Amino acid sequence: MKFLADLHIHSRFSIATSKNMDIENISVAARKKGIAVLGTGDFTHPEWFGELKRKLVQAGDGLYKLNKEFYCGINKFVPETCGGTTRFILSAEICNIYKKKGKTRKIHSVILLPEMSLVEKLNRRLKKIGKLESDGRPVFNFDVINTLEIVFDISDRAMIFPAHIWTPWYSLFGSRAGFDSIKECFGDYTGYIFAAETGLSSDPAMCRNISDLSGIKLISNSDAHSPMKIGREANIFDTTFSYCSIMSAIKNGNPENFVGTVEYYPEEGKYYADGHRKCNISFLPSETDRHGGICPVCGKAVTIGVLHRIQELSGNSENKNCSALSFKTIPLIEILSEIYQLNRGSKKLMMRYNKLLEQFGPELYILNFIDINELRNSGASFLAEAIERMRKNEVVIKPGFDGKYGYVKIFREEEIKKHRLIKNADSD
Q1: Which domain holds residue 33?
Q2: Is 139 among the domain residues?
Q3: pTM value?
Q4: Residues 241, 59: contact at Cβ < 8 Å?
Q5: Does any domain span residue 48?
Q6: Which runs of E-coded beta strand occur in 355-416?
Q7: Cα–Cα distance, 287 to 281 (Å, whole number)
């Protein structure tokens, strides 16, 4: 059975996350998006884990679901077209900051486990060596290899994958605090790394010439800090709903079971290009090289972005583990914001968004799979045109850099004005 899975999100207990990232709101968001399996995020945080224990029950085979009380409580907030049950996989992200080979390393990793009893054992171990209650993404001042030793001592059914592997500041290959190879980072535990998360500012296709990722399944997740961000990236599986089946699909890399990914436009990610945000300087790699890596305004070093870093580590061999199937999407709320020229957080825009879900089904179905003619025939011709252009990659892009998000636009300004004039005339 084909389904979408988003394995990396955060709860409201992580720094810089929405207060709405509670289990009810993320459950509603997952169903609206069309996510069938969702990471819980932050199981290391005592309060959040307590909430998970109260509100989730086993769904069989290493996954969990909302208990009956809470499931019934959220149904009124979910359109009938977005039916089904979202299953949860126990997940957490941790940060290791340490010195290695004369350089400070900052590595983020995501841990998956199949049972709450195993999470309890892991949390007891981690509590002795760090402050779990301070942040949903706890920080430990020891080598990431020690993290793997601890986790796999708890259970050989665990999975760990490096998160957003190209982010400059906190990742495996980051230009500021990462490594040049997986072996350099994980040492003797390299064989335990079966997957790597490409992050918002890259996609599997960009990694096709990274020989070091050969044999590693490239996966995509939202790293959501608010409900609307859930599912902005996801993985497409064709397996049974079970922890073992999902892990097996990732480890084996069989395209019949791990079908592909749903992708954010990498250019929209906030670390795609090089640059210096304070001076509003953005460079592509060739421009950075021409300037010697220095901001021409202030004379400081620019932050090397994901595209540049990938080019630095690229070889000539092609990585066969790049997903053959990949859907680049623009979040539906962003498309509607462009069409109607409304703020993404406005109530009026959310009403339009919810009405579309009620009419056609979950967001990711609308963006990636619905027949365009179905939209056109329903009267949503401008939206149909927008989604068709998105699917054909006929978009205007301004890349993000140095922590500043880029943007992806579909229509020219005159097209938007013409559409609004027609809509106004129709309403007269």
Answers
A1: 2-267
A2: yes
A3: 0.95
A4: yes
A5: yes
A6: 396-398, 407-409
A7: 11
